[in-house]
Write a structure and sequence with these properties.
Rossmann fold, 45% helix, globular, cytoplasm, alpha/beta, 8-stranded mixed sheet, Adenosylhomocysteinase, 2 domains, 420 residues, hydrolase
Length: 420
């Protein structure tokens, strides 16, 4: 097979990438069943899809499913530090995907790759953080002439899309894949919780038991992280700006403090808020010597990195892989993981494949639904149809060998009637 248009580090890595992709596929039974269905039904025949996603083995299996369904796919990376170069090579050489992604690429290359996949004049967009939608709307709107809709799979991206829609700027129907019950439960809570701990452990080899972890943000991701940190014996402090989420954390037994107070107590700090400047200069000035600082929000703006640079009198790069040590004027050291980018992908491998099976199964079925129904949809942010969420949950239960009850006709009648 002739390799499609691409910009990857080394096509010679393709066979290593195939092994990685096939290993992930073993833990993705729901997506595999959908891939088989797509190969038979070809619901996306002739459609061009532009994707901005993490270039990982799990993503590769989603794109394989879309290719099986008849789509032409062009992929750019959604984060410079998460690209697996062997997976990128396999996608090009073995699976026929146009990939423009290299590990540790600079910001200019990242932006250029987004434009490159948009130049395919896609019918559908798959976005991870809203960067693809943003650059298309603000810089190259002419490339959306044939685009009929798309999906967004992150909390940060959905927030951006809702702001665009409220301002009347969003020109497409975009489905908020992130907001499904299965995605929030499985991916955000269990996936981010485990993979963030994984990234911290790989980068530091630190014992969490007996140490204090500060979790900034108590959304689904923060809850999952707090649960797993507590399960490993850490004392957990939560910081929040939302009183309802803060109350939830209190009722679950966590200590809730303002960041100014938490900064004095923490040994490990992780931001998972989706907002910027959560940890700032005034907080960094209070850190203990040796404090570990990480981010598991989508963009690298949650930690005020310029402030950290300005406070440091010395920066010791790579004291361990994906760990940089900043020495402050009084000798205190702050260890920043994965350059302040997503620690679970920068210092580890992201979510386990079993987690992404559910998220990408929802995404695959949503793409097929968009292919069929886009003519009926108006611009704005849309929910995933409830039947897709339920179908994916049923597929996962079947893969786990779990059986559940079904309602009797009398129970269905009872719930559908208001009469006693």
């Amino acid at each position: 097979m002739r390799a499609p248009r691409h910009d990857v580090a080394d096509l010679g890595l393709a066979q290593a990438g195939v092994r990685r992709v096939e290993w992930a596929e073993r833990a993705m039974p729901a997506l595999r069943r959908i891939m088989e269905r797509f190969a038979e039904q070809r619901p996306m025949e002739g459609l061009r899809i532009a994707a901005c996603m993490h270039v990982t083995a799990e993503t590769a299996n989603l794109l394989r499913a879309l290719r099986a369904g008849g789509a032409e796919v062009a992929l750019a990376a959604s984060n410079p530090v998460s690209t697996q170069d062997d997976t990128a090579a396999a996608l090009v050489a073995e699976y026929g995907v146009m990939v423009h992604a290299r590990s540790a690429m600079d910001a200019a290359t990242y932006a250029r790759n987004l434009v490159t996949v948009l130049e395919r004049r896609p019918h559908l967009l798959l976005d991870d953080g809203c960067d693809l939608v943003n650059i298309a709307h603000l810089e190259r709107p002419e490339l959306l002439a044939e685009t009929v809709g798309g999906c967004e799979q992150t909390t940060t991206g959905v927030l951006r899309l809702r702001r665009m829609s409220a301002d009347g700027a969003l020109k497409l129907p975009m489905v908020a894949v992130n907001d499904t019950a299965t995605k929030r439960m499985f991916d955000n809570r269990y996936g981010t919780g485990q993979s963030t701990i994984d990234g911290i452990m790989r980068a530091t080899n630190a014992l969490l038991s007996g140490r204090t972890m500060v979790v900034a943000g108590f959304g689904y991701c923060g809850r999952g992280l707090a649960e797993r940190a507590r399960g490993m014996g850490a004392r957990v402090i939560v910081t929040e700006v939302d009183p309802v989420k803060a109350l939830d954390a209190v009722m679950q037994g966590y200590t809730v403090l303002p960041m100014e107070e938490a900064a004095r107590a923490g040994d490990v700090f992780v931001t998972v808020t989706g907002n910027r400047d959560v940890i700032r200069a005034e907080h960094l000035a209070l850190f203990k010597d040796g404090a570990v600082l990480a981010n598991s929000g989508h963009f690298d703006v949650e930690i005020d990195l310029p402030a950290l640079e300005s406070l440091a009198v010395e920066v010791r790069r790579e004291v361990r892989p994906q760990a940089d040590e900043y020495v402050l004027a009084d000798g205190r050291r702050v260890v920043l993981l994965a350059e302040g980018r997503l620690v679970n992908l920068g210092a580890a491998e992201g979510h386990p494949a079993a987690v992404m099976d559910m998220s990408f199964a929802v995404q695959a079925l949503t793409v097929a639904w968009l292919a069929e129904h886009h003519g009926e949809l108006a611009p704005g942010v849309l929910d995933v149809p409830a039947e897709i969420d339920a179908e994916v949950a049923a597929l996962e239960l079947a893969a786990l060998g779990v059986h559940i009850d079904e309602m009797t006709p009398a129970q269905e009648d009872y719930l559908s009637s208001w009469r006693p």
